[in-house]
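Schema walkthrough. Field components (list of strings):
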Amino acid sequence: MPSLKAVLAEIVQEMAAQTDRGTVASYIPELARVPVQHFGIAVATADGQVVCAGDADTSFSIQSISKVFTLTVVLGQIGDALWQRVGREPSGNAFNSIVQLEHERGIPRNPFINAGAIAVTDALLGESLPREALGSILSFIRFVAGDERISIDKDVARSEQETGFLNAALANFMRAFGVLKHPVEHVLGVYFHHCAIAMTCRQLAMAGRYLAFSGRLPASDTSVVSTDRARRVNALMLTCGHYDQSGDFAFRVGLPGKSGVGGGILAVAPGTASIAVWSPGLNQQGNSLLGTLALERLAKAMQWSVFGA
Ligand code: DON
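Field assembly_structure (string):
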């Protein structure tokens, strides 16, 4: 087996040479300012190490990757009752699509498409105020990453709040069907702010460890969630984490993964590693173009695919 450090160095070199880097998201104006040349990768392993390469210590907007953490927090609060409001099937549609919602009476297909994540955020609001709900997500992420510096980029949140018409449509639709219980402005306020959390690859790889190591943080052996819960979140990441590219991601990379339009991807090699990669240019489906390629290279070199070496 080659050394992880050497594999990451090779990947950084290969990615630097790529001329087609995808397109930086522009529907959230603040994200359009991020230079497309960035590339970073970090891998947290069972022995407590984090091996990094490239721009692994530069913060980026985690966007939809935050949906993994909100889902974990909500499952901790209400458990399986969540599945009355959100499905667990891949949608085969774009992350911001509204088409299935009418047919399926306002119940989103899964917790990772925007409609599903907005429904999860509504569940998280429960009896609490928007700022308390947001505080619970941020505290959870800081705890699993072991890093109190992680915070919300207010400019990104504001930018999305000003242009989030599609999400407002999805939220209003679900509210009309009674799937959302709280005022749409409250739900979207929390949703836009958790999407605007900024993290580095190093912090994100640390934050994903509980998914890679059966619900526990390996070095300190602290329990975060049950083994069953970690396994199920991983299953959802594998089947739904890349929207209408989830099949292709499983085919090429073979790991549970969750993307964000900031160009980050969190991927999990169960029992072995938590991986964060960042390259801001996106493909057609809104997932990081080079991030996916880098994970494909890494999983192959290290024989980490869940489907076999
Ligand atoms: O709601 C949105 O559109 C964004 N805050 C998040 C979308 C996203 O990251 C899709 N992922 N690739």
